[in-house]
Amino acid sequence: MSHSLFLNPHIVVKGVFMKLASCLLLFFIVAPCFAETVAIDPTSATKADDANTMANMYRMGMGVPKDMKKAFELYQIAAELGNTDAQVDLGDMYYSGEETSQSYEKANYWYEKAAKNNNAKAQMYLGYAYLNGKGVAVDYDKARGWLELAVKQGEPSAMYHLGTMYFDGKGVTMNKNQAILLLQKSCSEGASNACDKLKEIKTEK
Fold this sequence. Notes:
Layout: H1 9-27, H2 45-60, H3 68-80, H4 84-96, H5 104-115, H6 120-132, H7 140-152, H8 156-168, H9 176-188, H10 192-204
Helix pairs in contact: 1-2, 2-3, 3-4, 4-5, 5-6, 6-7, 7-8, 8-9, 9-10
């Protein structure tokens, strides 16, 4: 998420709250602010985006007390309404067991929802799951398929994982030249593990 470096953060937060204040009644009709069940019209993408914005605010403690439980509840709402960013964040919380029982299966469920809507990070996470058997059986074909989709969108971690597949010949014909090209691109985009892998390869030669 990008923010202007020249805006007063207090004004930004105040502006966000003024915008979101009108949405609160839509989120919490006949329920207290911290109710576990919130009724929202499932046809509204705007409500999904607003719920995701509020979840981020609670997760980061931006203008409100940090509350991971509340963030999880709002991510759940936004994810169910189809917000792909919320689906990824909710997947992350299930993956790490943050404010919920840890479950790779549930994490992958939400990653797949977002991946099918062309979210590159979710595609990378799914590729990683199939590559390493995280909540699913190892399936190199599916791993490669999801990683390739993410690579096409310029996702650095996907480049790294696909590069290691080519380097090791996992599910693909071994092609170290192709692997190095992917790792170099990943490293140049800031993936430190790709940079480390390239150093390792250079040392082995």
